[in-house]
Amino acid sequence: MKIAVVGKGGSGKTTTSAVLARTLAQSGWATLALDCDSNPNLGISLGIGEEATERLVSVRDAVDAGEEEHATSADDLVERFGVDAPDGVRLAVVSAIQNPKPGCPCCGISPEQLLAELERPDRLVIADLEAGLGTIMRLEKGSVDVVVVVGEPTMKSREGGRRAAESVFEAGLGRVMVAGNRTRTDEDEARVRAAFPGLEPVIVPDDQAILDAERRGEAPLDAARGAPGVRALVGLANGLLDVG
């Protein structure tokens, strides 16, 4: 199963991606996490630490700089250029590029190309996409199975999430699940639910423990496992297994 996580910048999609990846890995699945943001921070949220995250070289730039030989396939690429994260998650950083379909599998790899080519039935893929709708709108049918839309109760975030969900439905990309992140009040929850008619958002409460963990550069799943927000995201991960 391939899962894409999308949302407005600052909505919490990277934290969501990290908790999903590690929870699914803890369930026994071989799990690959793709950091598709041009400012990659998924490694921090996964728990490999700030320094190790900064040392990660994108799969594109490693070849461009002449530091690595060409990979022969998408699977070869993530094995050679990825790193191991807690709970057995494999992490690879992917640079965003202008050409969505470069000829070589590693000279200018794009998130949409990787998602289209990574095909292993015994592995789950979690892709933390760059903020906005660009990558979602370039994905081809069959590239992903589920899109997790992360949105906050603010009007801009709700509207961005609604458009992302509509794009997924219109393109027939797969199922949509919604994480209503940083909800504080019943009114916040009602706004999130109203933005996604026909769907049942997972409500993720505003949680200071998650914010504190991120400020320290720690994985929320390690530093605040029992926090309400983390528990809600773990529940979302379990829901993804039910979908699969």
List the helices and strands and how they pair.
Layout: E1 2-7, H1 13-26, E2 30-35, H2 42-46, H3 50-55, H4 59-64, H5 74-81, E3 83-84, E4 90-93, H6 111-117, E5 123-128, H7 134-138, E6 146-151, H8 155-171, E7 175-183, H9 186-195, E8 202-205, H10 208-215, H11 220-223, H12 228-243
Parallel strand pairs: 1-5, 1-6, 2-4, 2-5, 6-7, 7-8
Antiparallel strand pairs: 3-4
Helix pairs in contact: 1-12
Describe this structure in words.
With 244 residues, the chain is α/β, with parallel strands linked by helices. It has helices spanning 13-26, 42-46, 50-55, 59-64, 74-81, 111-117, 134-138, 155-171, 186-195, 208-215, 220-223, 228-243, and strands spanning 2-7, 30-35, 83-84, 90-93, 123-128, 146-151, 175-183, 202-205. It has one domain (2-243): P-loop containing nucleotide triphosphate hydrolases (Rossmann fold, 3-Layer(aba) Sandwich), CATH 3.40.50. It has an eight-stranded mixed β-sheet, sandwiched between helices. Strand 6, helix 8 (155-171) and strand 7 (175-183) form a beta-alpha-beta unit. The longest helix is centred in the C-terminal third of the chain and has 17 residues, at 155-171. The protein starts with a strand and ends with a helix.
